[in-house]
Amino acid sequence: QVQLVESGGGLVQAGGSLRLSCAASGRTFSAYTMGWIRQAPGKEREFVGAISRGGGSTYYADSLKDRFTISRDNAKNTVYLQMNSLKPEDTAVYCCAVGRSDVFRTPRSIADFGSWGQGTQVTVSS
After folding, report:
1. What's the chain's average pLDDT?
2. pLDDT tens digits, residue range 29-78?
3. Neighbours of 88 (CB within 10 A)
4. H or E stretch including 73?
5. Helix (H, G, I), strand (E, B), or coil: what is residue 27?
6. Angle, CA of 9, 92 and 105, to the nearest 5°
7. For residues 109 and 15, is the Cβ–Cβ distance under 8 A?
8. Which residues are CB-contacts of 9 (< 8 A; sequence separation ≥ 6)?
């Protein structure tokens, strides 16, 4: 079981940037695909993006792929979410997620994740 701790959230003005980090426990971090989901107040959880085990492949929600970038450092057991040109509608709790072990490709939806962390709040002011 991989334990996840997200950090890096906060308050930022529209147009700004933030980089979120997710530290994972366990010695098999590189065996998992990873990703991010988010949930805004009063809305359903939303797929943000995902990254392959080695980091060579990524997949994003169409509406976010031009502004968000996911990367990982397997030596540090950490996955990152770089968010640029932030908009007020990006305000949400952002959660790091672990890909299901029976899904071999890079996750493409929330259904491809098996678990996620508590999340970190991102608030974008207009």
Report:
1. 96
2. 999 999 999 999 999 999 999 999 999 999 999 999 999 999 999 999 99
3. 11
4. strand 68-73
5. coil
6. 90
7. no
8. 18, 20, 94, 120, 121, 122, 123
